[in-house]
Amino acid sequence: MMSIQERLDAILPKIMSPTFRDSKGMGNEVGYHIFDYDPIHEMLVQDHILYMKEQVNGKRNGLTIREFDLYEVTIEILVQKGYLQKNFNMEKKKGSDFVLNATQKVLRLTLNNDLVIEYIANRIQPNDIVFLTGVGKVFPIIRSHTILNNIHKAVDQLPVVMFFPGQYDGQTLMLFNELKDDNYYRAFPLIDYR
């Protein structure tokens, strides 16, 4: 069984491989990948993502790792729409469940004009490798399977790697190793444990 450091060290060679960028999913779309990890390793994973971006971005290889922290994206959208402070005030008056539902409606999750997907679509370039992070921070506002099921609207020709604090067995997403997010079948485990 590979250690977390061995798995992290295996990411960069894998994503730099031309076969990784040309891999196809089950529906012949560019492959989606999930790097699952024990949530206790969150800071180690974040540091390694920063390291990989430093190693790849701005180099002569023409590739860019484009990271989208889903929590930060959500906050930025709420600020742009003028809803962040309104959400704080609403939560005091009506509670967290009300704000959760209102925020999901503002983001238009799963609709054709999903603001998170639109945000990503407007910021990617042809030679990008898309990293999705912040999955644990943004839960339960955004569920990982929701993003994975809808990101093809924005990213249909680029490889996507979701960094998932929990377990993914090729079918089921288990956030924080405890919360069953949902089944998702189209993503490949990026680096297997074995």
Automatic annotation (TrEMBL):
Pfam family, one: BrxB
Superkingdom of the organism of origin: Bacteria
Name of the molecule in the record: DUF1788 domain-containing protein
Lineage: Bacteria, Bacillati, Bacillota, Bacilli, Bacillales
